[in-house]
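To whoever is on call:

I kicked off a structure prediction for a single chain this morning and the downstream step that reads the tokens threw a length-mismatch warning. I double-checked the sequence; it's 173 residues and nothing unusual in it as far as I can see. Pasting both halves so you can look.
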Amino acid sequence: MKYQIVLTGVGGQGTIFLVKLLARCALNKGVSFIGTETHGMAQKGGTVISYLKIGNFHAPLIGKGQADLLIGLYPTETLRFLDYLKESAFIVTNGDDSFPNLKNFNLIKVDASKKAVKGEINPKSLNVFVLGVTLKHVKDFPFSIEEVENGIKELNPRFADANIEALHKGLNS
């Protein structure tokens, strides 16, 4: 299996948590992985981008036109990193109706920010909610629901129940 994921958002949205969670899933599954993250101005709300390569790779950065999936937690950051995607790759993004339709990609958008404001999801679990949406729509995603749930429990047991609830809300959205 070879699978390349770009995860992006702004500081405080949990992008780094997601890459750590997916790395934990790969570790638990016994598959090779390599990843990196660029924090930028993360604490000030700046761009955060992380890469995760699952399979036999030697360098952590994903080249332009190589990623199978982009998970975007903030709409403008999703748009900023489109050039990393293969044609027909999947994009799962937090975005409202103003987010443009992207013809060369499989686009799944969900207005997670609106759901958080309305109290439908916990704002601190918005990232895991979007991951749940990813699991629902991306059929070749390298990890199962159970593998992600186990990773959540291992990585952050204190907030595992809230994150698993958010994951399932994404799966059922």
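Update from on-call: the warning came from a stale cache, not from the record. Cleared it. Sanity check on the structure: Helices lie at 15-29, 75-80, 112-117, 126-137, 145-155, 160-171.
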